């Protein structure tokens, strides 16, 4: 768990940088739906990121019933921070439950009726890379709206790597 916990801690640091970036935006820009991004807004993409964690790690990995978050119910970046605080707790629970058992498989049935088995390592990898994919879109939308984004890469020389 220590290795994946360290990895997730880095993800949370870059997310915090992104939250700080979003806090300088006008609310109208934060929720502006951009046609060239499929009608998504920065807020909607952030909610989408959280619900991906909820769906794969919470519902399927932990067997929890998680109420779907509607973007319109997130009014501020502080509300978004709270959504991710709860998400982080769930991720921590997932990491603890599956530590040392990353090849454990969880069955999934698609809407088409087809089934597949996903390893817990796949679930964690999918959700974290999914976040980074959409983080890039958030930065791009912000840039299109006239905001200069901060560096949200994982480069942080003051942070020591995990030695697991």
UniProtKB/TrEMBL annotation:
One Gene Ontology term of the molecular function aspect: metal ion binding
SUPFAM superfamilies according to UniProt: DinB/YfiT-like putative metalloenzymes
Residue stretches in coiled coil: none
Binding positions for a divalent metal cation per the UniProt entry: 48, 130, 134
Keywords: Metal-binding
InterPro entries: DinB (IPR007837), DinB/YfiT-like (IPR034660)
The UniProt record lists the keyword Metal-binding: yes
Protein family (similarity comment): Belongs to the DinB family.
Name of the protein in question: Damage-inducible protein DinB
